[in-house]
Amino acid sequence: MFLVRQFIFRHFAKEWVRAIVAVLGIALGVAVVVSVQMANAGSVRGFETAIETLSGKAALEIVSSGPGFDENRLQGLQWLAGYGQATPVLEGEATYQTTTSGHESLRVLGIDILSDRSIRDYRLLEFDRQQREPSTREFLDLLIDPASIILTEKFAQRFGLVTGSQIRLTLGDRPQNFVIRGLLRNEGPARAIDGNLVLMDIAAAQLALNRLRWIDRLELLPASGTSLEALREEIQRRLPAGLQVQRPARRGQQVEKMLQAFHFNLTALSYIALLVGLFLIYNTISVSVISRREEIGILRALGVARRTVVGLFLAEAAALAVAGILVGLPLARLMALGALRLTATTVKTLYVATAAQAPPLDNAHWLLAFGTALPLALLAAAMPALEASHIPPMAAMRSAGRSEATRNFRWKSLWLPLCLFALAGILSSAKPVGSLPVLGYAAALAIVLGAAFLCPGALHAARWIGETIVARLWHRFPNTAIEWRLAMANLASSIPRISISVAALAVSLSMLAAIAVMIGSFRETVIYWVEQTLRADLYLRPATRSNVSVEATVSPEVEEAVRRHPQVAGVDRFRNFTLPYGEGLVTLSAGDFNVLLEHGKLLIKEPSGHLEVLREAIGKDAVVVSESFSLKHSLRAGGQVTLRMPGGPRDFRVVAVYYDYSNDRGVIVMDQKTLAKYFGPMAPTSLTIYLRPDASADAVRAGILKSLEGRYRVFIYTNSALRGEVLRIFDSTFAITYALELIAIFVAILGIASALLTLILERARELAILRMVGADQGQVRRMVVAEALVLGGVSQTIGLGVGLVLSLVLIYVINVQSFGWTIQFHLPVGFLLQSSLLVLVAAGLAGLYPARRAARMHAVEALTEE
């Protein structure tokens, strides 16, 4: 313990700036990793918690393929009473317009009071004050009027609502007035989705949601002492075709499976920041070994074993890592809130509407932080620690200040990065593991490590080029070039040490460049796809907050008002909902293929690229599938897909595969006549409106909205507005990606500052001699800033080169395996030039503090210390 206190903590007190930089780097890395895990868990847990809370005591549920099933089928399920208490449930979405926050989304829960109270506990505030439970008759009286609803106490307090008052809610596309008959205490179902719950009688909910005769599921509370799995299998055998029994948690598992690739990619990107933080640990321990060679020599001369020296430096790394973890974990909670905001648009638009909240820090997060950062920090410090243990005592004491520098490049140092690049090529051609690009990320890691090991060679090349350029400038601008000449000489003699800092920054910049190229390419591809496929003039959908809501449909009156408009040439009734497929979910959509053939356009990938192949699917058991579905399920045009229909499994022929970037779960599209054959008449969830050639889209939109004013609330987008909305969603989707990489770059810039500060402290004698021979403070400052600019320039050059290679892996391997999207390569030259300039500016700023320290060194003090 004495050695640890004297050798480590006294050193931290002396070199506190470098220690703080290392701790901050690890803290940010840990915070990013843990915050992304918390955000991932929050987006899924919000949905799962709502399921668990709203399901109450129900252990099983009977569901159908598609958006619920006809309640007439309940007559054939009366035998379920022999297994326990069963109750029907209908869920929907409502929107409440507020004066402060704009709009609030509420979950509508339609229940049968007579049977539901045995499954869910409802504590009404009014009866709770009387210290009694309402009878079933009293509860039924509250909701006997179709305009009666029950809200939660939490929601009512938030907006100043009281029992007996009226509230105007929009369900689907219809604003409706309701009377608040009661308030639920903040217990049981009232705690779901932050209290945004509306309780209605199931018949009233069917009427309000325009879903007469339909229910979402039948929930079952089995008798006590029953084996749940055996009961599930027995009920499944007796259920008619098209119905299945499952646990309520199954819906959460399907959503988690759907989000798996999205969350996996965020997790992989988050580890980049931690990886860069580990470069700082390596750099810190390496510098510690170099600057304390005399101390090491004295310890070894006094008989300290090599393993003790290794242990001391590993303890130093462990202390830095633990400090970083302790700082980073509280920061992770704050960053998780930001990560949830950045991912909320993506999750709600492409996957599922959920009230995501960042979970509190728990033991699992502490275990994740210590289980990743601490071992990796020890691994990063192992090489310099072993190097320290092998320093001969006498050699260490004779060369206390600086280690032997090498100016010669060794060609054999290239074999390791070349082997890593070859390994990356092999891994890039491998297939995904469980639908995840695990080996694709392994290939990216091999490229990153190869680039890191290539940095010494790149610095030698930069030294040769820089010395050549500076030599030419020396004759023309001797007064200006002297600082650059000194800077190049200083860096050339310190390549073994500065290469670690350059590698850290180069890795971060390469990931930023790769992501910029990938996002730029993806954005250009999406723009082309939007221009080719979004041919309609107007797009109409109900005025709901959620873009993935399947309950909100367009009323017949709205559809009729659209068709009556004299400038409307065609209307495509589009219906979509999620459907179980394998272990996950897919989107089943239906449209009018005749209207699509006459007015619209799809980008067909196969078989021929012509839209005419859709004629083969009109009214028949045939579908077209999205590219992401095709790649994920290895299904091509001409194959067959089996879907769970209400009457049982049915086979559909795949007539075409089309390009689609609306979601990555996969889309199956059939003609509306085919959908009606299996599901019956269904209201559309949106309308695609084609106008006559001389019509004004804005004028028609205004006319339709005016004709619906006061009776229906819908969103109508013009073609240009919808394209802008698509790009807005796209940009918000990748906002967190840029945020993660900017954090990694910030950590790496700290490494540049730390390395320069170390070099200055080690070159105290040289700086003193410079001051004695006439160099002023300004020249010393400019020399150090020039060193920082050279380091930034070399890092950016390496980063751009490696980033282009990484972008190919991201575009053609990781994205294809994760999401099934084909992206056309596009180089965002403007962004890369701007980022290069910003990196140079940031590197120059990072050199200001070390430059100030160098300029303030006094010759006498430096020579005395030396």
Morphology call: elongated
Cα(first) to Cα(last) distance is 30 Å
Arithmetic mean pLDDT? 79
Total DSSP E strands: 21
Q: What class do helices, strands and sheet pairing give? A: alpha+beta
* Low-pLDDT segments: 400-406, 860-866
Radius of gyration in whole Å, from Cα? 33 Å
Helix content: 55-70%
Contiguous helical run count = 30
What composes the largest sheet? 10 strands, mixed
Beta-strand content: 15-25%
Overview of this structure, please?
A hairpin with a 2-residue loop joins strand 13 and strand 14. The radius of gyration is 33 Å and the shape is elongated. The C terminus is likely disordered. Helix 2 runs antiparallel to helix 10, helix 2 runs antiparallel to helix 13 and helix 18 runs antiparallel to helix 25. The chain has 866 residues and is an alpha+beta fold. It starts with a helix and ends with a helix. Strands 12, 13, 14, 15, 16, 17, 18, 19, 20 and 21 form a 10-stranded mixed sheet that branches. Strands 1, 3, 4, 5, 6, 7, 8, 10 and 11 form a 9-stranded mixed sheet that branches. It is built from 30 helices and 21 strands. 58% of the residues lie in helices and 16% in strands.
